[in-house]
């Protein structure tokens, strides 16, 4: 289930250039530059407080950096809200699962389709015919994702009743329902046992391979990162420490000192 052979990616999908972000006196990111290439699995790693989540929040428009630019699909992006990023094909999951706990798995996944719906829900309730056909199409798409992620057995279960590992999988399903071009995963394996982690790794690799989705993920489990990512960017105290293929990063002295060897 690993990326054994080095894959080569030429086309830059998203470029982060000289990004700096501060909260009052706290510098969360200082002068960060890297790119994410179309089709790759890109890991963002670093110790606690390194700025990883802040970076994802800048990429999906939740935080606005004081300096620097984001170029997505060749266009320099001006200030952008998360729903605009989503419309442009950037979906994300969160460190702490963010689902509607009282709603079923299927309904949660359907919320990921909202941006794809041409008619709004109210009109769909009033008018039948074309609107109903549209809803059926969306439901069918969600059912395909449910099959793909092997969560058929829980499609009607309220997600609040599911174990944490499955909730994470439903969150992935909802993000996939948006048919993203770039999928941002914030610690997709956090809090999982070994078996759940193996399943999630397999799904991340399958999504990348079968849907061609570009994936950027934050992960603390170094085994997972080294196994599934094509390239790794390392942050520490808001600065970029290293950037390269997993094998190279693993051997980088500064990385070993800052992260892999000793914690702060
Ligand atoms: N909304 C915010 N307001 C104030 N400070 C913030 C905010 N978000 C992040 N920070 C600060 O920015 C720095 C980077 O935090 P961030 O959450 O991005 O790190 P991280 O690498 O994702 O950490 P972790 O691995 O613990 O999730 C930290 O010092 C954090 O306290």
TrEMBL record:
Is Ribosomal protein included in the keywords of this UniProt record?
no
Under InterPro entries, the record lists:
AAA+_ATPase (IPR003593), ABC_AA/LPS_Transport (IPR051120), ABC_transporter-like_ATP-bd (IPR003439), BCA_ABC_TP_C (IPR032823), P-loop_NTPase (IPR027417)
Q: Please state what the protein is called.
A: ABC transporter ATP-binding protein
**Native species of this protein?**
Aquibaculum arenosum
Output the Gene Ontology terms for molecular function.
Answer: ATP binding
**Cross-referenced CDD domains, in alphabetical order?**
ABC_Mj1267_LivG_branched (cd03219)
Tell whether ATP-binding is among the UniProt keywords.
yes
Q: Which PANTHER family match?
A: ABC TRANSPORTER ATP-BINDING PROTEIN, CONSERVED COMPONENT OF ABC TRANSPORTER FOR NATURAL AMINO ACIDS-RELATED
Tell me the ranges covered by the ABC transporter domain, including all copies.
Answer: 14-262
Keywords for this protein = ATP-binding, Nucleotide-binding, Transport
Any one Pfam family here would be BCA_ABC_TP_C
């Amino acid at each position: 289930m690993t990326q054994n052979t080095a894959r080569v990616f030429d086309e830059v999908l998203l470029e982060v250039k000289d990004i700096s972000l501060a909260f009052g006196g706290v510098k969360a990111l200082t002068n960060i530059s890297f790119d994410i290439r179309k089709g790759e699995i890109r890991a963002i790693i670093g110790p606690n407080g390194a700025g990883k989540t802040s970076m994802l929040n800048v990429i999906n428009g939740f935080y606005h950096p004081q300096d620097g630019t984001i170029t997505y699909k060749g266009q320099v992006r001006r200030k952008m809200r998360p729903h605009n990023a989503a419309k442009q094909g950037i979906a994300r999951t969160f460190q702490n699962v963010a689902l509607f706990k009282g709603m079923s798995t299927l309904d949660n996944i359907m919320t990921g389709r909202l941006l794809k719906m041409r008619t709004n829900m109210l009109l769909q309730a009033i008018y039948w015919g074309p609107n109903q056909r549209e809803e059926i199409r969306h439901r069918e798409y969600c059912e395909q994702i449910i099959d793909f992620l092997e969560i058929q057995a829980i499609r009607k279960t309220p997600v609040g009743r599911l174990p944490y590992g499955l909730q994470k999988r439903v969150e992935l399903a909802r993000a996939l329902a948006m048919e993203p071009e770039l999928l941002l995963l914030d610690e997709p394996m956090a809090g999982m046992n070994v078996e759940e982690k193996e399943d999630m790794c397999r799904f991340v690799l399958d999504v990348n391979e079968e849907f061609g989705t570009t994936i950027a993920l934050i992960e603390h489990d170094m085994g997972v990162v080294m196994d599934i990512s094509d390239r790794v960017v390392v942050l520490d105290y808001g600065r970029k420490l290293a950037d390269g293929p997993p094998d190279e990063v693993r051997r980088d002295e500064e990385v070993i000192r800052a992260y892999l060897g000793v914690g702060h």
